[in-house]
Amino acid sequence: MSGKDRDPCVKFLKAQRNSELFFAAFGSMREYLSEEYLQTLTEEEALNIKENDKSLYICDPFSGIGFDHLQKIGCRIVSPQVIIFCIQHHRCIPKSEYPVYNMIMADIIISCTSLHKETKKEIHKYVQMMGGRFCRDLNMSVTHVIAGQVGSQKYLVAASLGKPIMLPTWIKELWKKSQENCMARCKDINMEHFKCPLFLGYTICVSGLCALERRAIQHLTTEHGGHYMGHLQMNECTHLIVQEPKGQKYEYAKRWNIHCVRVQWFYHSIKKGFCQDEAMYKTEPVLETKSEPCISTALGQNNEASGYINESTHNSVMNSNLGSLLENLQNLDISAFQAPVNLLDGCRIYLYGFRDRKLDQDKLRRLINCSGGICFNQLNDDVTHVIVGDYDDELKQFWTKSTHRPRIMEAKWLLECFNKGYLLSEEEYSQLNCQPVEIPISEQPGMKRNNSFSEIEFADAEKHQQADEDLLSQNDNEDMIVDDDEMSGAEVFNDPSHITVQMENQSSFGYNLLPETPTIIEGLFSQKNFLVVGFSEEDESFIANAIKENAGKILPLQSRMLANYVVVPLLGCEVESAVGEVVTNTWLITCIEQQNIFDPESNPLFMPVPVLEGSGTPLENCVLSFSQFIGAEKDSLVYLASLLGARVQEFFVCQGSAKNDMLASTHLIVKQPDDSKYQAAQKWGLPTVSMAWILETAKLGKRAEEYKFLVGNLPKQE
């Protein structure tokens, strides 16, 4: 066998039933590849191949002894329609452990939950055969979740993030459609027919409800994919809906570990469009007291008559019973509050004096975090408010010795704010006569910002509040996002730019008043202040939103607070000297993509890139391709190279094609000398250089000498 035959090539497998698409794909590839790297072979020749030779095989049809043999030895196989699609859309040909038949699921990334192992394996196979990608763990790049039933941690997080939850039959229908029309697209299928019903996999029983409401729940349960059972049965029923936490059914349900939830769980699930977390609607036995009925009891009486939640009744009941709620927080129904999602924006709160009232503390903590506040685990200089349960001398001593003066507030202030939906004056509820922490105007809780992110309608606030509550309620579990079978790891196929959704386990709340580093409900940029400078209004809004979504704080330009990071464009801009680290949007997006705060000096693109003013286009007539660069790093290099006059192409080709608007490549930018593009560049005699060549060209204002930046011959680091 000659050296040419051993090199990776594009090989078309001839068969008796080759379609017109097969020959069309072959003709298209001839415009990109020389005859040296484009071959045809018969089935007999295919059978003589003994191992995977790293070539790309185009097979049509996906059957026959040649196809079966190539698949068995692990060769990379695609169909002609994949070749045509990728050329038309200027895409790279996908890599997959299965033969890729079509691209109907291009740009779709699937994750699965609550499926049998064999079903998940089958979905994994068909998704890749249709050009999609499969991700075992849920992350921000996942576009759809396939669920066998509702209620898992992955389901709750995905639904709260607004990701479509689909049935396995959706994948089967897509595969069927692609057989009828090989160039079909995913949007050709009506997704509404394949969305996961709200109560799929649940068997619901009720107790203590009137006949009218029983019939309504029975009808709605069946309508939304669940199963209704009149009698409670062990190992069959999954949920018991109760009016009050008492009765024989309730006692047996607790004994059998059946979810016991209030009726609001059922109606809120329907209202929100996905099954809610049962932890937010748990029922607990109510101790007999002489105080007025708690909110949950009053709401229960109202719901028995109507079967639905009446928000105006919620408010009137809370107004009349707020005093008794303070005396008995354990009976507080936190789902009854409908406060705006940004009510406590800017408030950094420490809960003190709840040492023997862990349940009360947890409820207040959830209220704080689902309304835009941050709940601290220790008292330190960042705290703006201290909510006191039991006031004692220890707090007073700390106050007299401390130079930091947060507001010391009664819990009643917090509940009144949630009740009314806006921040009340702090003076009336202050426990100590003190000066409050100075908060910049732009950080004042409840103040409207002059950007689109702060102009939230009440309906949207309610939606976001519930989503936050759903996410927050999972913090009590060991893992926020888990894979639902025995598989482990975080393998993401061809998914370099994802942002994994993760949250660390929460520590139990401590009561040491020494100013230690707090453990708070964190995001990537928790306790980090940012300035965003030098961008257009649209880009600034996008960057600010990304920072906020990862728990960072945006400071106004006139703020007296010192920013930890000043985010500027790739080429930099003028900033004041008295600031923290100056970083680029490349650094920011890379940190978010990889959920890690990188040292700005670890990559030259993380700090402003110097470009000689008036240097023109020193890379004019250069045609560049990039290999091994991904995400924001690649985007920034493409932008910089284009700015310097280079033509950037996704495809690395030795010959141009006027028909496809492709020029012959002149340079390959790589990190390591170990991929197929690098090998091709060596054969074609084209320079393979590091990104430092582009950066040096920008700095000098003229084309840098390639030999100084050849990969494998890089300058030694000092």
Automatic annotation (TrEMBL):
Span of domain BRCT: 100-173, 194-283, 339-431, 520-605, 614-711
Keyword Transmembrane: no
SMART domains in the record: BRCT
Organism domain of life: Eukaryota
InterPro entries, per database record: BRCT2_TopBP1-like, BRCT_dom, BRCT_dom_sf, TopBP1-like_BRCT0, TopBP1_BRCT_1
A Pfam short name: BRCT
GO biological process: one example: DNA replication initiation
Record keyword Transferase present: no
UniProt entry keywords in alphabetical sequence: Repeat
Name of the featured protein: LOW QUALITY PROTEIN: DNA topoisomerase 2-binding protein 1-like
